[in-house]
Predict the structure.
Amino acid sequence: MSGLISQLKTYKMYLLIALIGIIASIFVLFFSYSTFQNSGFAVGKCRLLAFTLVVLIVFVELYYHFSIVVKSKLEYLFLITTICLGLIYSIFFPPITVADENAHFMIPYYYSQKILLMPGESEDHNMLFRDCDQVFFDNKKINGSYQYLSELYHNYPDFYVGKQELFESSQQVRGTSGNIMIYLPVVTGMVIAKLLGLGILPLLILAKLMNFATFTLLTFLGIRKIPFGKGFLLLTATLPIANLFATSLSYDPINNAIAFAFIGYALFFLYDKGEKTKKDMVLLTIFTVSLAFTKGGLYMILSGILLIGFRSAKGVLKKENFWIFRTWLLELTAYVLALLSNKYLFTTSNVLSVDHFERLEKAGRYTISDCITQPFTTLKIMFLTVLRYVDDWLFEIIGAKLSWVSVPLPKLLLVLIAIALFLALFCDQPQKQAVTWRQKLWVLMIAGMILAGVELIMLLAEPLDGIYIHGVQGRYFHALLPMLFICFVGKIRIQKESYYRWLLMSCNVLYAVASLIAAVTILRN
């Protein structure tokens, strides 16, 4: 009887979270769509601010009840945080306002056209808009946050209906063969919108919601399975920058979600002595292979960490370690095949193509040959870049400047969030030291290799006389944070669960304050 009651409570929790998600989606659709149908801000700034305050109050109350009073599992707390705060970011940061989201719109739109076999659109690249959607592009007098959007469109002419600009953009997409694997949620949303005959604005909103739902589901699975570090993974996945990108068209949330899910399942296989089901094995295989298609394969090294650095751990289960080895080989095979086919890896076409080398040489930019022939100069530039920008990267991982419009968050707030994250390192850890110092060293070394790989890719766009690499951003290393947590796993930990939960509560209040500051900043401008 007690087991049945426990199951009913779990189902009630799922139903509650699903209800919150449905209501949040309805509000996103209503506020976003109604805003663009009028020459002014349809709902009004005061009403929107009041709505934001109500959402944040409800969020804090829900989090307090389920974290402190009921003491629910942390994966449910993640759902509450990401849905409530994601609702705010979805409304205040409309489509095409996060980094590189213009390209993240063109690539999945191109694939949605190919999937639906629209030869007229695919060949001419001339988007068909409904009359009401013209406001989305032409109205330059929209108040509130959407005035930024109109300015962005004004600065990016390839998003107008002009046939030539769209043709050139789509030709670029066709030439680079953007990775459809990590755009699947967005492409799915666009295909559904096209099948329903919706205009471009509902298409964008639906695509964003599909991206958000996928990020939420994959991260939820990772938090549920990870044997230790649940709280730190939760806080990492709900940072302001994470919520912003999760509600966008970018592939960054999918990259991060796949990495979070892989880390959770891999550590579960390595350290949890419970029985592993076939479902768990299939999911681990899917997440491992999927890493080959994220960020040009850079995150694939995460699985190498667990293969090489963790195979001799005292608590590691040898049978599950062999499964990790097989899935990593499958992932490596998928990466090599994609590299040879030159169809699924974004960096393959952009960085490794002969045409790209020729363009770099003509423009007086760094090439791979320059990096090889001048290794000391290359290492010097990489080292100086780290010294120059490391503090900026740390704050950018949290969310120092949100979106292209660079909505700033106060330094004090960022420091408080950083302190809360640091304290979370000593929570929810195993009683015995499960990770050796050698393994911790492996984690730091591989993290440094990923950092160096990102710097080298960005160096190829820099002039030959440059001394810094300017294209590297802190958000590129978001998925590495949960792995760096392992470096702090030890005997020192916060013993009382109440202290631990209050720490999570405090950090989420800081996240709520960050979203409120972003909303007020946008409304004031």
